[in-house]
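#structure-requests
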Amino acid sequence: MEITISIINYNYGQYLKQAIESALNQTTDVDYEVLVIDDGSTDNSDEIIASYQSHPKFRSSKTENRGFAAALTRALTEANGYYVFFMDADDYFELDKINVILPLLKMKTNYYVADCPKPFDNKGGFYSSYFPPGCTSTVAVNREKALVLCPVENELWFHTLKKLGFGIFLETSYTNYRIHGSNMTNRTIAGKWQNYLYKMTFNLYNQLIKESDNIADALSIKSSKVIKTAKFLKAQGYYNKTEMHLELGSRSKAFKAFLKMVYYNLITIHRIKFFDIKMLIRVILVWPSQKKG
């Protein structure tokens, strides 16, 4: 089988039908399946899923609630397709997404392709300026290559393939990203979203260091490249920690995190970026970044 579209669902029954329909109605001739990974939903998701069980391209898999990380890992490991397109159940695809993304995934150097999410709200309005900090639904991967990163906690794990030189990011959009209360709560509380990103990035750093040899073997690269990428991610984690302390108004803690960010930037890319200098000014003045949305 060429492709699996893995839809990750937890109590998104009100949106699930639109997600499934956008997956089943792709304008492509390739052999693909639609797999719903249900993480123990207690709403009407079972009813929606049952209505599609007779469709030849559709199947589902449900467990007790284990959290998003376990569901995302299952979305990869339980897929039958050579390539996996991920979708959160509150989002939906443009109908030509497979036709556009698949040829790019088939290129020898691409194990990861992500498009730009197009944010919209439940009233049908689309946003032109707001760009979601993270969106699982934009990611498509080569399943065999991505498996070496398991277990995964969020889409940052798959972004690693691009950071290692095996992927591309498109500035065009084939993914509609729904903005609603459930997926925006942590992003509006000062420091909470940046703290989440900091923790996730450090978890990823630790996993890459621990599994550097296995990852290098799977991708036919040197383990030193994996380690260097991990250290760059650590710099990113300290960036998130700096932003967190800026949002909370703590200059001293922000400055300490900033220095660590600069250090890990230097040992990976060997230069100070203008961006770092700009952030230093913000640390001195205790200016958080302007929130989007």
